[in-house]
Amino acid sequence: MEDDNALEEREEELSSIAAIFPELELDDKEPFRARLEIPVELASPLRVCFPASTDGEKPPVFPTPPSSEDDGHARSGKESSRSELQTHDLCFLPAVRLDIALPHGYPESVPPEFILHATVPWVPQATLNALQQEGEKLWDEYGHSQVVFGYIDFLQQAAERAFDLASGDLAMELPGSMRLMLLDYDKLAKRRKFEQSTYDCGVCLEPKRGSSCYKMARCGHVFCVSCLRDFYTSCINEGDVVSVKCMDPSCGKDPKLTSKKRKQRTLGPSELLQIPLDNALVKRYVNLKRKKKIEADKTTIYCPRKWCQGPARSTKYPKITSFDNYADSDSEPEDEIQALPDIPPHDPNKIDRLAICEDCEFAFCRVCLAGWHGDFVRCWPRTAAELSEDEQASYNYIRANTSPCPTCNSPVQKTHGCNHMTCFQCRSHFCYLCSAWLDSANPYQHFNNPGTSCFQRLWELEEGDNGQGAHFDGPRAAEIAALEVLQADLHAEAEALVDQNENVVIPEHGRARQEAELFAEALNELHLRQQDEPAVRVPDRARGPVPIRELPGMNFRIIPPRRAGIERFIEMALNDEEDAWDSDELDDSDDDFANLR
């Protein structure tokens, strides 16, 4: 009768354990034997150290200097060996297998048999033996009754603490051969748990399974894949690569941080491919980010060919051929672009003058922007007087109608709205009127401060630069005023030349009338050429003859020699150099050209 009761009691306990743990494996040959794997999911991340060397050799331990004490030698060796370790925080570790056997006479007189095996030998055998002995102690504490469930619960709680193998700030050391295995297991276990859970998308606010969601690698915010794809695809197609980051509005914003540069980093291409986004879209994203950094770098040299305008080859921003060679933005904040030191372009001893366009492969000099002439040819940088009409017009428009960002100096023009601006390049907040940096936490304090020139001017130029309110001056007000004075002087000089031309008395007949007409026409021609043609820097005469380049806007005309001589005389007279003029230039030997106009 007692044997029947014991038999029923063992069967009842195993059936109860199988109902609680469906993964329990029963032995077909022996009915009172079972096997169960105890998963190791840690309550808090466990810091694990692996040797840095992959060949299994121990890191070298350097001897202590003779002046040190004996105990310092051991400490020095231990510290040097720890510096050679690679540390990782793991949340999941390989499971521990539990073999259960309920012998005849259990539970009244015979304890159960528990045997532990580590599927991956990360748990020392001594720890496993100690855990096995706890099973028999637990059977005694339970008063020789059913103890299998209690022992499994004991193992689960110990597994959450990593079986007490590491305590406090101390890290657990494991062989380097287990590093990749444990890291892969931890990653797959996290992904498996994530896919089995349910999350509320931060955009559409709908509950969805983890298999349809993505968890941001840096911050841990969760969004559904559909919302991420739609948003990032729209941003990349529109060229707004700065917005390709976590969509949570509070992400990366620390209220205690008031510095001008906050680390709001964009996503890397590897993370975009994991979401997943199309390969072509990610490639466009990477190229746009590189183009953005090149344009923000003031040291970038562009191809002088008008039809190309591509950047020169650079080791700082190499051309991207594959995602494997591209560094993710995890290690490169978007708002902390380190620029190369500013080197004067006219100093050939500090820079390599040879530049090659990465688009058309045109070799040119980065100093004079001419075709490559070799290292031993002396050249000079192009001055502002040599700019083309289009370039000069662009500079004048930017100077007169934009306000520079105080962080990256990018020109910004307002079309409508208030004067609180956000830079499209670096996302800095600044005032459009004075270009002062504004605190993003309270940007409108600047317009409420009576001590500033922008006091109560938040809504000036609400409709853009030509809208209501005072005329836009910006931080370049002094520069604009100087340009207006210069333009007024040029206009007055032109009016004086016109008046001088009108006061010329033209004789009625003969050679004197012809010379007067030539003089008046030459004066007008000289005045028009001074207005229409861009100024050309005259090279030093000691350098030898320099071929004249035809610049945009120059209209070369065939001028009769006699008329040319008059023009030369007028030009020398304006420069107070008429004493050096040779009257033989007005010789009559050019009568054949006298009637040419």
Automatic annotation (TrEMBL):
Pathway: Protein modification; protein ubiquitination
Top EC category: transferase
Record field: compositional bias (Basic and acidic residues): 70-85
Residue span, RWD domain: 12-162
Entry superkingdom: Eukaryota
Entry's Gene Ontology molecular function annotations: ubiquitin protein ligase activity; zinc ion binding
Taxonomic lineage of the native organism: Eukaryota, Fungi, Dikarya, Ascomycota, Pezizomycotina
Chain spans, region Disordered: 51-85, 577-597
Catalyzed chemical reaction(s): [E2 ubiquitin-conjugating enzyme]-S-ubiquitinyl-L-cysteine + [acceptor protein]-L-lysine = [E2 ubiquitin-conjugating enzyme]-L-cysteine + [acceptor protein]-N(6)-ubiquitinyl-L-lysine
Domain RING-type: 197-458, 201-235
Gene3D superfamilies: 1.20.120.1750, Ubiquitin Conjugating Enzyme, Zinc/RING finger domain, C3HC4 (zinc finger)
Keyword Heme: no
SMART domains linked: IBR, RWD
Listed name of the protein: RBR-type E3 ubiquitin transferase
GO biological process, one term: protein ubiquitination
Keywords: Metal-binding, Repeat, Transferase, Ubl conjugation pathway, Zinc, Zinc-finger
Organism listed in the record: Pseudovirgaria hyperparasitica
